[in-house]
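2.7 Reproducibility. Because tokenized structures are sensitive to small changes in the input, we list the exact sequence used for alkaline phosphatase, including any N-terminal residues retained from the expression construct. No trimming or masking was applied before prediction.
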Amino acid sequence: GASARGVRPPSGLRQTRRRAHADTPSAYVESSGPPLPVPAATPRDMSRTWTGTAAPSPTAPVHVLLLLLTLASTPLGTAFGEGEFKIPDAAVEADKNHWYKLGASGIDERLRHQVKVGRAKNVVLFLGDGMGIPTVTAARIYKGQRLSNRSGEESVLSWDIFPHLSLARTYGLDVQTSDSANTATAYLCGVKANYETLGVDSRIKSGQCHSDTSTHLPSIMQWAQDAGLWTGIVTTTRITHATPAASYAHAGYRKWQSSVPDGCAAKDIAYQLVHNTPGSQFKVILGGGRGMFLDKSMKDEEGQPGDRADGLNLIQSWKDSKKDSANASFVWTRQQLLAVKPERTGYLLGLFDKDHLPYVPERSDPDTTKPTLPEMTKVALDMLLRSPTGFVLLVEGGRIDHGHHVTRAGLAMEEALEFDRAVEDTVRRLGSEDSLIVVTADHSHTFTMGGYPKRGNNILGIAGYSDVDQLPFTSLAYGNGPNSRKERTNFTEDETTSMSYVQHAAFPAWLETHAGEDVAVYATGPWAHL
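Resulting structure tokens (single pass, no recycling of outputs):
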């Protein structure tokens, strides 16, 4: 991966940094323009009793990596809530019979449940990038606190009610902890692959150029098209990013999105999307990444230069390739997307940013140019539900992962909530009689939720104070990442619930890494029990 412009990380961090950057937005590692001011800490009343015997020392100097990260980032929003949230049914929960009835009801529901074995006409695969089990738990609590102003632990995410749940191991052929490329190859092509490779088998290692098509692995999108189904992809990242790319591309290195090394006969990922199957036959493509499709000498609709160096305008190539087909439309703003008439549109390409789409808190309100994940998913369904034979749709909440990489848990939580809304809307619309809906993640993060906070404690707040140094710690933290300090500090007055707050990490890494534990797989609809 690339390092921050003009800055080299400490030598001991370079390997960790490379892996962390594999799924990290370029905005955080190649920031341009003048540095932004460091957001000042805001005093806050944590409504906590100090348990130490002596006052802690003043805040120590901020770790240099935290400073670099802050300078490269935009301060986002304010705290969503302070203090503690009330338990909505405390009196009911205090009655032991409530829990007996709840358990009996759950057993009865399972006994009545009948698996569906009819044909799944439609398949929607929702992928929360980096949405490990700790993220799911924290997001569930955050949802209750953020949206309902209640304790949150009892809240329900849209996939929590799915009748079937399993676990998936995420290791790669050559790594214990994977990136999003080899995991995407596994769940979209059905074959485990090597680190940082896309849509190719074990013979291809990371960074290895290849032109041998016998190494190529067909994806579920190819199988769907062969069966006469319509296909589409939706993501909040670049559409050439690892997760969506594995559905249509074959590459020895995931970062070959707009170019390949000199002498390499293979085509870059964006080129493959436009010119090769199955990508060229996608009915709907919605996400970011306009820069991957335009030459550096060209500017996109927002005046941003492209990233290619071969003179190609692949957006125009896509339009040209659809001239003989039913009406094809290219859109680049939210307004244009919401104005699409599916009955008059045979193919739809929407690229809403030069790079990834902005984080949820970064968007203006209302935002006329950047659509939400639920909005993109709705339009994709509007398009694909016109298929007489059915469809396969991949929907990625890609920036959950990015929020974790910069250890800003608030961002990851906001992205997870938007992902939850997209799933909820889809389940409500499609039902489960002839539509198989799967929700999963490609990997986890070194993201932890700990301490012994009271029920209803702000999930982004302080969980308690150490019995060793009497200093505070937050409920959410990371095993590694940029905000690792040699000396613990007293951050009681920091606004930990702000979207700009960077959670603490146990040991330093240029950017936080993935974690290798199993991830959950939730399913509903025909054959979901498998």
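Residues 1-79 have pLDDT under 50 and may be disordered.
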